[in-house]
């Protein structure tokens, strides 16, 4: 693994910005999983979204528009501190739009803008205060270019010792990449991303971080910003981040985005009743959910390696082979949340969180 260069502690960071700030505008590109960003100078500090101008970019270079009609508009939706540049500099999560008509009078959401799709669903369920905690699993690949890739800690052209020692591992023979995980953890805290924890995962070179609990649409904003920060941290280590749900075929762990979900009534005394009602509703919508739970998820949800089968909806207390797990302490306390174990690592959290609300929360039919 390459040395951490630590460029951000070098001298140029301390140079005067002369009352200007740098805003890094960040958006999801046309692949629906890769992130793009560019920077601009603004005058003075920024406190709220309304102070930030819209901007645009060349969508023909990001699979979001044609060359002839290339402009994609970006609108700021959430602001975070920029832990790399420090000071009053900011990271700005944006949503993407294209022209809805030939006269260019109206905008509509661009192809991978699922945030706008989710907003009315969350608005209808505002009174239910839906909370989400997403466990983002990912892989670290050593990379010199786009074509040669090797999982961190794996031998050249071969396989490491079989899975067993790597989950929550400690020690150089079983744990690779802790510095990256930790730099990312600190970056999230510094940025104001609601990260709740992290751990080494079942496969060597695989890690997880957890975002949440976040209410409503903010789960998507925070998870996407956490993914951005991880990509940036990886740059400094020469490590690329993969959200492929099953990068290595066979008896090697896939990657998921377990989505923990609750409403106010599930969290209150006796909420277990609402929890079982939600599970009943989910059981009737298996197909609709699986369509939004990530590409290549069928390669991961085999019923092996602590996954459920993609074919069959199941639920169980403390069961890591079920579609929905009820955590043991939730069953004991008779209130809390459920864990949907089906979403893959490459999901769009705006989609997964909003379909959970639309299926489980009464009065938010969409
Ligand atoms: P696991 O035991 O499945 O590995 P983790 O500890 O990795 O679970 O993640 C649990 C996630 O659930 C965390 O992101 C946490 O913030 C979230 N969470 C906790 N309570 C709730 C709740 N009431 N509603 C929604 N999410 C919750
Ligand atoms: Mn240019
Ligand atoms: Mn976890
Ligand atoms: Mn995990
Ligand atoms: Mn989990």
TrEMBL record:
Catalysed reaction, written as an equation: L-glutamate + NH4(+) + ATP = L-glutamine + ADP + phosphate + H(+)
PANTHER family associated with the record: GLUTAMINE SYNTHETASE (PTHR20852), GLUTAMINE SYNTHETASE 2 CYTOPLASMIC (PTHR20852:SF57)
Species for this entry: Euplotes crassus
Name of the protein: Glutamine synthetase
GO MF assignments: ATP binding; glutamine synthetase activity
EC identifiers of the protein: 6.3.1.2
GO BP: any one term: glutamine biosynthetic process
Statement: the UniProt record of this protein carries the keyword ATP-binding: yes
Domain GS beta-grasp, residue spans: 21-102
Gene3D superfamilies: Glutamine synthetase, N-terminal domain (3.10.20.70), Glutamine synthetase/guanido kinase, catalytic domain (3.30.590.10)
Pfam families: Gln-synt_C, Gln-synt_N
Keywords of the record: ATP-binding, Ligase, Nucleotide-binding
Family membership noted in the UniProt record: Belongs to the glutamine synthetase family.
GO cellular component, one term: cytoplasm
């Amino acid at each position: 693994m390459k040395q951490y260069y630590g460029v951000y502690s070098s001298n140029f960071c301390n140079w005067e910005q002369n009352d200007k700030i740098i805003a890094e505008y960040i958006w999801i590109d046309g692949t629906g999983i890769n992130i793009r960003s560019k920077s601009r100078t603004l005058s003075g500090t920024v406190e709220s979204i309304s102070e930030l101008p819209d901007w645009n970019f060349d969508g023909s270079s990001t699979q979001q528009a044609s060359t002839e009609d290339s402009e994609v508009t970006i609108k700021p939706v959430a602001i975070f501190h920029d832990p790399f540049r420090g000071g009053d500099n900011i990271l700005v999560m944006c949503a993407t739009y294209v022209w809805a008509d030939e006269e260019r009078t109206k905008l509509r959401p661009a192809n991978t803008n699922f945030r706008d799709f989710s907003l009315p669903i969350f608005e209808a369920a505002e009174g239910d205060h839906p909370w989400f905690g997403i466990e983002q699993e990912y892989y670290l690949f050593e990379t010199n270019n786009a074509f040669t890739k090797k999982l961190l800690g794996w031998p050249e052209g071969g396989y490491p010792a079989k899975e067993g020692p790597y989950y929550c591992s400690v020690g150089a023979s079983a744990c690779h990449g802790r510095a990256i995980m930790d730099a990312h953890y600190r970056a999230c805290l510094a940025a104001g991303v609601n990260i709740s924890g992290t751990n080494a995962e079942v496969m060597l070179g695989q890690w997880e971080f957890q975002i949440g609990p976040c209410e409503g649409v903010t789960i998507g904003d925070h998870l996407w910003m956490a993914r951005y920060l991880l990509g940036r941290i990886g740059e400094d280590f020469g490590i690329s981040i993969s959200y492929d749900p099953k990068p290595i075929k066979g008896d090697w762990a896939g990657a998921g985005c377990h989505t923990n979900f609750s409403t106010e009534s599930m969290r209150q005394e006796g909420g277990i009743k609402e929890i079982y009602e939600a599970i009943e509703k989910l059981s009737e919508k298996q197909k609709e959910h699986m369509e939004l739970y990530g590409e290549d998820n069928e390669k991961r949800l085999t019923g092996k390696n602590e996954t459920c089968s993609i074919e069959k909806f199941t639920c169980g207390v403390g069961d890591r082979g079920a579609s929905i797990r009820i955590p043991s302490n939730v069953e004991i306390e008779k209130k809390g949340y459920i864990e949907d174990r089906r979403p893959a690592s490459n999901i769009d959290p705006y989609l997964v969180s909003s379909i959970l609300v639309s299926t489980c929360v009464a009065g938010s039919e969409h």
